[in-house]
Amino acid sequence: MRKQIAKALFVSVLLTALVGPFEPSDAATVPKATQILAKLATKGRAPQTGYDRDLFSDGWGDIGECDARNYILKRDLTNITFRSSPRCTVGTGTLNDPYTGQVINFVRGVGTSSEVQIDHVVAVSDAWQKGAQKLSSSKRYSFYNDPLNLLAVDGPTNQQKSDSDAASWLPPRRAYWCPYVARQIAVKYKYNLWVTSAERASMVRVLKTCPNQVIPKG
């Protein structure tokens, strides 16, 4: 029953997620990442006590006709083909990986699917230690399945990142540092999560190279 309630609430939250936390009528009014970073609280990392990924979601939630993984694959890949079943299953596609700049040919299969993984830009355990413990189950469910916080990326690079924050890991491709940090800031602001002092310092250093970087819309 709790999961059903969480999913129902997620549908309403998803309407915001699909367009992002900001939907201005004039592009000039989109907040800059530096402006939103200034609104985030700075605190120490809380203990990981009690953390369990299932406290967020016991697998991918549904977004329309797709589960969240296939929804993101459909959004981020090109040259997509679908399998006949189950519904909305991406069979093949091409990923221009934002983290490495590599072009990856995705082929679904036991030995190949992991070459493209769905990254939680703000890692789940990182969120737990920076405010998500206090979120309701429906909010944690939304966080886990929110397209704003999900990217299709190179699998090995995602494994390397693990649960790191911006203080300890940035994508190998420097050209993506600014959009990456801006997305983390947008997610943390949306879910009322905080940053550590080291994390904030890293974000500030990155954004100094791109002071006009705006928050993504989703």
Report on this model:
The structure is a single chain. By secondary structure, this protein is α+β, with helices and mostly antiparallel strands. A hairpin with a 6-residue loop joins strand 4 and strand 5 (103-107). The protein has eight helices and seven strands. The longest helix has 18 residues, at 2-19. It has helices at 2-19, 33-37, 68-76, 124-128, 137-145, 155-161, 177-190, 197-207, and strands at 62-63, 66-67, 78-83, 89-96, 103-107, 116-120, 150-154. The protein has one domain (2-207). The strands form three sheets. Strands 3-4-5 form a three-stranded antiparallel sheet, with helices on one face. It has a two-stranded antiparallel sheet with strand order 1-2. A two-stranded antiparallel sheet has the order 6-7. The model is unreliable at 1-5 and 8-27 (pLDDT under 50).
Q: N-to-C terminal Cα separation, in Å?
A: 29 Å
Structural class by SSE content = alpha+beta
Portion of residues in helices? Answer: 25-40%
Count of discrete structural domains: 1
How would you state the average pLDDT, rounded? 90
- Specify the biggest β-sheet: 3 strands, antiparallel
Task: Sketch the topology as an H/E string, one letter per element.
Answer: HHEEHEEEEHHEHHH
User: What portion of residues belong to β-strands?
Assistant: 15-25%
Uncertain segments are: 1-5, 8-27
Radius of gyration equals 17 Å
- Count of strand segments: 7
Q: Judging from the principal axes of the Cα atoms, what is the shape?
A: globular
| Distinct helical segment count | 8
Strand order of the largest sheet: 3-4-5
